[in-house]
Specification:
This protein is an all-alpha fold. Helix content is 75%, strand content 0%.
C-alpha cells in the first residue's frame, strides 16, 4: 500500500488558519469601512445613511427570499408602511425618534403577520400575484388618503427630537449616520443569530423541501409566517430610518419599483449570506449616484449589465468573488507545496 504524502495530509490543517483569517476579515471589514467612512467623508454622510437604510431593507428581504425561499414582489409595502408609521407618529403623537421607530417596527410586523396569514397558504405564481396585489392596494390607499398621508405630495411636517435628548439630527447628517449604523448592527446581530439557530436551519430545510420537513413534524406554515413577520418588521425599521433621516415620506416608498430595486440589490450581492445585502446595496447605490451625474439613464444600463453578468456567471452573487479568490489561493498554495 502506498503511504499518503505528508503534503496531502497536512494541507487541510495548513489551510485552516487561512480560512479563519478570511472569515475574521469578512466580518470586520464592512463595519470598519462604515466607521471609517464617518471620519473621512463628512460631506457625504447622507449618502452613507441612505446606503445603510437600503442594506437593512435588503437584509430583511434576504431572510424570506434567500433563507426561506419566499419569492415576493411586495416587500416595499412593509418598508413604506414603516416610514409612514414613523412619520405619522412624530406628527400626531410624539417626536421621539426611538419610540416612533419601535412603533413603526410593531405596525410593519403586524402587517406582515396579517398579510402573511392570508397569503402564505398559497405558493408559486399565485403567491407572487398576491404579494403584488398587497403592495398595490396599500400604495393606492396611501395615494387616496391625502388627509392622512399627503398623497402624491408626500408626508411632510415631521418633527424629530434629539436621540436620548442629547444627539440632535443636524444638517451634516452625523447623528442620522450613527443612528442608522447602530440600528443596522443590532438587526444584523439578530439576523445572524436567528439564521444560525435551529429555527434558521429549519427554514433552510423548508426552502429545499417543504414536504419532507412537514413529514418529519416541522410546523412549516407557522415558521414561514414567523419569518415573514420578522422580515416585515425589519423592513419597517428601514422605513422608519428613512423617515427620521429625511423628515419626508413619499409614495415611492410603497411602489412596486422599490420592491424591484431591493430585489436587484440582493441578487447582485448574493442571497443566503447576509453580507450579500451589504455588497449589493452599496454597489447599486454608488453606481446609481456616480453614473447618474454623467447621464440620468446611463446608470440603468450599467446596473442592468451587472445584473446579467451576475446571474449568468456568479450563482451566489458578488459574494462568490471572495469564494473564487480563496479557491484560487488554496490551489496556488497546494501547487507550491508540491515537490
Amino acid at each position: 500500500m502506498t503511504k499518503p504524502s505528508s503534503t496531502t495530509t497536512l494541507a487541510p490543517a495548513a489551510l485552516a488558519p487561512i480560512s479563519k483569517l478570511w472569515a475574521t476579515v469578512g466580518h470586520v471589514l464592512p463595519w470598519a469601512i462604515a466607521i471609517g467612512f464617518f471620519f473621512v467623508a463628512e460631506g457625504s454622510l447622507s449618502i452613507g445613511t441612505q446606503i445603510m437604510i437600503w442594506i437593512l431593507f435588503a437584509l430583511s428581504l434576504d431572510l424570506i427570499l434567500g433563507y426561506a425561499g419566499i419569492v415576493t414582489l411586495g416587500h416595499a409595502a412593509f418598508f413604506g408602511v414603516g416610514a409612514y408609521a414613523a412619520g405619522l407618529f412624530s406628527i400626531h403623537f410624539s417626536p421621539d425618534p426611538l419610540i416612533g421607530h419601535i412603533f413603526a417596527i410593531v405596525v410593519s410586523g403586524l402587517l406582515g403577520l396579517v398579510t402573511g396569514a392570508l397569503i402564505l397558504h398559497t405558493t408559486g405564481v399565485t403567491f407572487l400575484m398576491l404579494t403584488l396585489a398587497t403592495v398595490s392596494l396599500i400604495f393606492e390607499f396611501g395615494n387616496q388618503t391625502r388627509w392622512l398621508t399627503g398623497g402624491d405630495d408626500g408626508l411632510q411636517g415631521m418633527r424629530v427630537d434629539p436621540i436620548f435628548g442629547m444627539f440632535e439630527f443636524n444638517i451634516f447628517g452625523q447623528t442620522a449616520y450613527v443612528y442608522a449604523l447602530v440600528v443596522l448592527f443590532i438587526w444584523f446581530l439578530f439576523s445572524w443569530r436567528l439564521m444560525h439557530s435551529p429555527f434558521g436551519r429549519s427554514l433552510d430545510g423548508i426552502r429545499q423541501n417543504s414536504r419532507r420537513m412537514r413529514a418529519i413534524g416541522t410546523p412549516v406554515w407557522w415558521r414561514l409566517l414567523a419569518i415573514y413577520g420578522i422580515s416585515a418588521a425589519m423592513a419597517g425599521s428601514a422605513g422608519a430610518l428613512l423617515a427620521h433621516s429625511t423628515r419626508f415620506v413619499g409614495l415611492s416608498s410603497l411602489s412596486l419599483l422599490t420592491s424591484g430595486i431591493v430585489t436587484v440589490m440582493l441578487i447582485l450581492g448574493g442571497t443566503r449570506k447576509l453580507y450579500g445585502a451589504f455588497i449589493g446595496a452599496a454597489i447599486y447605490y454608488l453606481v446609481q449616484d456616480s453614473t447618474a451625474k454623467i447621464n440620468p439613464h446611463f446608470w440603468e444600463f450599467i446596473v442592468g449589465g451587472m445584473l446579467i453578468i451576475t446571474v449568468l456567471f456568479l450563482e451566489g452573487g458578488l459574494m462568490d468573488l471572495g469564494r473564487i479568490g480563496r479557491r484560487l489561493i488554496s490551489r496556488f498554495r497546494q501547487r507550491s507545496d508540491l515537490p
